[in-house]
Design goal:
Chain B: Residues 387-446 form the ChsH2 C-terminal OB-fold domain. The complex is a heterodimer of chains A (397) and B (470). Chain A has 397 residues and is α/β, with parallel strands linked by helices. Helices cover 35% and strands 18% of the residues of chain A. In chain B, α3 (81-87) packs across α11 and α6 packs parallel to α7 (226-234). The chains are: A alpha/beta (397), B alpha+beta (470).
């Protein structure tokens, strides 16, 4: 299904500095402000000067075009800046391209940064300009396209609507709890199961509390080759795998696509595990940040990524497997649900949490001695998307 | 002389009880209910539905000419014949013409059918009366269709027809009027009665018929009681007068006489004589004789079938919104872009005809058309494949409260066709509580939206609702 060269990215590059703004409704901050904040936090964290950066990759979906969206605010001095876009996986895609550029030897030190300003549009949720079309595709909202997963999953595995509701609420409850421990999260308070379950419907059966936070924010990473990493810090984060799978649209066209699995996730995970040499993800991975854009997405991801057996993810949720003290904590920083989801920044925000956790800087939500982390970032719909997975580690293999 | 080979009708699913209008304004209301086009329907979409009901499994290639009669065309400038032709999969060389403005244009189109040809006549109307007025209560929406031709399949021979021109300002709508206006009805009533008295008896005498030999007289007149007054004046008994559908559909503009004719045919027996009297600034008179072939006509919904398929809980406020009579708070979503004309042009056969592709190598049906097969990845090994009329079921669904829709929540479902192929589309004429995985649906032609003055037509799914025996 997924072909890849024998020579992957594993242990070839390392992250030596990161930055992340608080994700929030930043009425008082512009795209420029957010970029400057995230980039300078990363420069300072890495102990470098802005002028040390030799090339940059900027991820944004709707907040600006071209590399000048970054070079202007930072006043970079005529270095290459590439703007990348891969829908909600945009931030991860910026990171991925930056890693490969360093690994190739073309540059020694690069910046990957993602930003999004969603709250300036005045619209509810994520909106984006569409290319001209015949207008026949139903103009459904993002929660609606992911809500297709819920009734299909419940039906296939015999959950009553009430059982299904409890599972989805538990996922949101977990992510809100984790976010309550995170000073940079958009929502920093716990939300009761009852409040989540009874929230106003957005795309039935999903309510407001099944949806990720609509936020503004930016996140950044400084990347070098592994052999250079210790010049900058003793505790860099090593990249073990980077994969992205773009789907052919089976969900739109093929009847065997049953809306209980997102094939792109499966393909990306299998390739990433192969690249990182992971045989048993549930045991070998210490923690994960996954794309919980809506609660049923996170449920399906558990199974697609091999954290749970098929049809067992909902039981693992109810058994607390993915909670902070559980067997495999997922979304320890609060996830898209409570940390917020400024599209272009989210993929880098996930890596930021891995980075903090490895360095023991995650405060009240610190996981004990994590070794291997996974980030999963998805752009599109269950029917057709790009699915990104990174495996990162505290130590070299 | 030609005759009717087949008929069909369409009555929109949504019905407004007239008492709801009365309650809103604190005024007395006419009884019964009126059929109202949904927010995604207009005269063209209703016309397609009526024509599909009429044609059933007939080969559309046999149709030489299509006439579309309406006073509520979606465009003042731009024809609807190519839209109808593509939706009905008629051949490219089909001739066509729209007959507009006159409320007699439905019957005029029937009379215009050429001998020796197959003519599809579609009459559909969707008129709006100003709030608080009688027209608002009286008017309803609907469509009818006839296949006209000759030969052994004719179910009703056209014995004769004639017209009377008699100028009178009775009902009118100028280029800029939103609502139909009407003069004091005693004027139109007087003109109508005079024309009826002068023309009907001579027409029957000429054809060796008398009032007594007519099985049903189908009268579409200028007032709510004109049909009864005319019948009485001519000497018809009440049993001979075809029900004008005012109680459950309303006055459907130029589709009114055609829909009544469909009703009459649904109950007709071989040998029955049917007289149509259609008024609008004069009269059209049609005399038909039902043949033995009517007993062989296949089942269809027709007026009777569609009358029983309804949602009569529509609120008057819904009607006001759907007709854009009241402005409401826009959703906090971007407004709908006008569709790209080049994209529409490239895809009109696919989108209006609902024609996808089927892989010649592996047999997988796909919509929209693909160059590379999603199943076996063969390139350019596709043949056209029409999904219309195929049985299908809901695989999963959502109720989207966030999407911009005149009737939230927008119901969107993944539809899998029993013979292969999938589409993700809106489900219409469906209550949110009804939808479930496995629900049987059929495709219906709708106007998705109008943006930039462009009406964008496509297909939606609707629950299959069967009347017993239909």
């Amino acid at each position: 299904m997924f072909k890849m060269s024998r020579k992957g990215i594993s242990d070839k590059v390392a992250v030596i500095g990161m930055g992340c703004t608080r994700f929030a409704e930043h009425w008082d901050k512009s795209v420029e402000d957010l970029l400057v904040e995230a980039a300078y936090e990363a420069f300072s964290d890495a102990g470098i000067e802005p002028t040390d950066v030799e090339a940059a990759w900027l991820g944004t979906m709707i907040s600006g075009y071209a590399g000048i969206t970054l070079s202007g605010p930072l006043k970079t001095q005529y270095i290459p800046v590439t703007r990348v876009e891969n829908m909600c996986a945009t931030g991860s895609e910026a990171f991925r391209n930056a890693c490969y550029a360093v690994a190739s030897g073309a540059y020694d030190i690069v910046l990957a940064i993602g930003v999004e300003k969603l709250k300036d549009s005045g619209y509810s949720g994520l909106t984006r300009p569409n290319p001209p079309s015949d207008g026949t595709a139903p103009n459904i909202s993002a929660p609606a396209s992911f809500s297709f997963l819920a009734p299909a999953y419940f039906k296939k595995y015999g959950l009553t609507p009430e059982q299904g509701r409890e599972v989805l609420s538990r996922i949101a409850w977990k992510n809100h709890y984790n976010g309550s421990l995170n000073p940079k999260a958009q929502y920093r308070s716990e939300v009761s199961m009852e409040k989540i379950s009874k929230s106003p419907l957005v795309a039935a059966p999903l309510g407001v509390f099944d949806c990720s936070g609509v936020a503004d924010g930016a996140a950044a990473a400084i990347i070098v080759r592994t052999e250079d990493a210790h010049k900058y810090r003793k505790d860099p984060m090593y990249v073990k795998a980077l994969t992205i799978a773009a789907g052919p649209g089976d969900g739109r066209l093929r009847q065997d696509f049953d809306f209980t699995s997102i094939k792109e996730n499966v393909a990306a995970a299998q390739a990433a595990y192969r690249e990182a040499g992971i045989k048993n993800p549930r045991q070998e991975i210490s923690m994960a940040e996954v794309h919980d854009c809506f609660t049923p997405t996170e449920l399906v991801i558990y199974e697609d990524l091999g954290f749970s057996e098929r049809g067992q993810g909902w039981k693992d949720v109810l058994n607390g497997v993915f909670e902070l003290g559980g067997e495999l904590p997922v979304n320890p920083d609060g996830g898209l649900k409570s940390f917020g989801h400024p599209i272009g920044a989210s993929g880098l925000r996930m890596l930021y949490e891995m980075y903090l956790q490895f360095q023991g800087r995650a405060g009240k939500r610190q996981i004990e001695n994590p070794k291997i982390g996974l980030t999963h970032n998805l752009g599109g719909t269950p029917m057709q998307c790009v699915s990104f997975i990174s495996i990162v580690g505290k130590e070299l293999s | 002389m030609n005759g009717i080979i087949s008929y069909g009708a369409y009555i929109p699913y949504n019905r407004l009880k007239r008492k709801r209008i009365g309650e809103f304004f604190g005024k007395p209301a006419m009884g019964g209910e009126k059929a109202i086009a949904g927010y995604d329907e207009d005269s063209v979409s209703m016309g397609v539905e009526a024509a599909m009901d009429c044609l059933q499994e007939m080969n559309p290639d046999q149709i030489d000419t299509v006439y579309f009669a309406t006073t509520s065309s979606p465009y003042r400038e731009k024809g609807s014949i190519p839209t109808l032709a593509a939706a009905l999969n008629l051949r490219d060389s089909v001739r066509g013409m729209e007959t507009a403005a006159s409320l007699r244009s439905g019957t005029a189109a029937i009379m215009a059918a050429k001998p020796g040809e197959h003519t599809l006549v579609i009459a559909g109307d969707c008129r709006t009366g100003a709030p608080t007025g009688q027209n608002e209560q009286w008017f309803g929406d609907g469509a009818a269709a006839f296949l006209i031709g000759s030969g052994p399949d004719v179910i009703a021979n056209m014995i004769d027809y004639t017209s009377v021109q008699g100028e009178v300002i009775s009902h009118w709508r100028s280029q800029s009027d939103l609502f139909t206006q009407s003069w004091e009805e005693r004027l139109s009533s007087s003109a109508f009665m005079k024309q009826v008295k002068e023309s009907v008896s001579p027409f029957l005498e000429k054809n060796d018929r008398s009032i007594g030999t007519i099985s049903k007289v189908i009268i579409s007149g200028p007032t709510t009681r004109a049909h009864l007054q005319a019948a009485q004046a001519l000497g018809f008994s009440n049993q001979q007068v075809q029900n004008p559908l005012f109680d459950n559909v309303g006055l459907t503009g130029n589709a009114h006489a055609p829909m009544m004719l469909v009703s009459a045919l649904e109950e007709a027996n071989p040998g029955d004589q049917l007289l149509v009297v259609s008024f609008a600034e004069g009269l059209d008179l049609l005399l038909l004789e039902v043949t033995d072939a009517i007993s062989r006509l296949g089942k269809r919904k027709g007026v009777q079938g569609y009358l029983s398929i309804k949602n009569d809980e529509v609120l008057y406020s819904d009607y006001l919104k759907w007709r854009e009579i009241i402005n409401t708070e826009p959703p906090r979503r971007p407004s709908t872009d006008r569709p790209s004309a080049p994209a529409l042009h490239r895809g009109y056969q696919q989108n209006l005809g609902f024609i996808g592709s089927k892989c010649i190598k592996c047999g997988t049906a796909q919509f929209p058309k693909q160059r590379v097969c999603v199943q076996c990845q063969s390139k350019d090994e596709m043949e056209d494949y029409r999904f219309v009329g195929q049985s299908a079921k809901v695989t999963t669904f959502t109720l989207d409260y966030l999407a911009a829709s005149p009737a939230p929540p927008m119901i969107v479902a993944v539809i899998d066709f029993d013979q292969g192929g999938r589409i993700i589309c809106e489900v219409t004429d469906c209550h949110p509580k009804e939808i479930e995985i496995g629900m049987e649906v059929e495709m219906t032609f709708r106007r998705l939206f109008e943006a930039g003055g462009i009406s964008n037509y496509f297909w939606k799914a609707r629950p299959i609702r069967r009347k017993e025996g239909v």
